[in-house]
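Inverse folding, one chain.
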């Protein structure tokens, strides 16, 4: 498989907009490991190997364990995640698959049980941002770095 084109070269203005969105997420109050769990889970759902490669490395650099990374696609059955993390993973899945059922009240309310309104807004923006990156990488067949 070959990369179709590099978005940053073909559409630098659009790509710069994505980086501005990413930069805004950098100042988020959300725990860095939790951010990476969001990015990995959404990337699994979207089949984005480029982003999976990047964010599993980033998660490990932030102290995440191999066991939790490997089990993430089966987080509901795995005993390794806190209730707070489970709320975020459910939110991640709902927002990633927004066309299926929107963001169900029970998923939103569980997130709000653990996070303030402002933090919940940050979580949603994190999910939206990684979904946009996933779509760019999958559509252009961006190849992971070694």
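Residues assigned per position:
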């Amino acid at each position: 498989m070959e990369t179709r084109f590099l978005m940053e070269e073909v559409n630098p203005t659009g790509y710069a907009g994505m980086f501005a969105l990413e930069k805004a997420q950098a100042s988020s109050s959300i725990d860095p490991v939790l951010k990476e769990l969001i990015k990995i889970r959404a990337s699994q759902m979207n089949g984005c190997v480029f982003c999976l490669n990047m964010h599993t490395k980033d998660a490990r650099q932030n102290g995440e364990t191999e066991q939790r990374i490997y089990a993430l696609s089966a987080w509901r059955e795995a005993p390794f995640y806190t209730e707070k993390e489970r709320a975020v993973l459910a939110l991640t899945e709902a927002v990633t698959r927004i066309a299926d059922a929107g963001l169900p009240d029970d998923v939103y309310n569980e997130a709000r049980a653990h996070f303030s309104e402002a933090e919940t807004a940050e979580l949603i923006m994190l999910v939206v941002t990684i979904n946009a990156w996933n779509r760019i990488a999958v559509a252009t067949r961006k190849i992971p770095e070694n």
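The chain has a mean pLDDT of 97. The first helix runs from residue 7 to 10.
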